[in-house]
Design a protein that fits this description.
The chain is an alpha/beta fold. The chain contains eleven helices and eight strands. β7, α8 and β8 form a beta-alpha-beta unit.
Amino acid sequence: MARIYTIVNQKGGVGKTTTAINLGAYLAYYGQRVLLVDLDPQANATSCLGVEKNEVRGGTYESLLDGNSPRGFILHNPRLKLSLLPSSPSLAGAEVELVNELARETRLQKALEKVQERYDYVLVDCPPSLGLLTLNGLVAARDGLIIPVQCEYLALEGLGQLLQTIERVRDAVFPGLDIRGVLLTMFDKRTNLANDVVAEVRRYFPGKVFGSLIPRSIRLAEAPSYGVPISAYAPESRGALAYKSLAREVLEGDGVSGLTG
């Protein structure tokens, strides 16, 4: 049965999609069967993996709204050994359409139950909001949340609201919802500010911060324009090595042994 992690932070520009794509790619590199679920109407994860979002014939929207199994919509990239449940602009209407649906917060959870036996890891990339789509991502996160936090001023701004939402989900729907780890992104070791943010986040989330630090990287920013993760675009870059380290950290924390490379 797959481990399901949701990558979430309602603050935009903190590296959610970058993390989803590159962590997924390196988990696949280490031999894991990985499904990336694009739950964002902007469909950035879909586009960053070279899929034209306006040509998607089915994906997260149909899985959430129509009750269809995701199996027929999943795209597999044999080069990257990575699977994708794509998003499309139609997902933008899901927030409104889900409002009057029964068990609307468990739609993604139910959809993933239909395919989870095929994968070792499922990574859900959430939109930068705390609406119904993100709520579905939280409820589906059986094995925890990965929260990217940017190493910049006001990095913790908004995290209090996210933590309140997590508590509400625990109380109302999913008592077992947990934080798998906080990931520090866009780290620049040359600045005192970045180091101060790292120290503050580690104080704020004791024992929950990944040791791997994701650096500011031109290569990480360039890779999406080529439709590939950093592992295929610039595997020796600092960004690539950081996400490779993160993948190992996740796998070792999950008790996966025999890692090489």
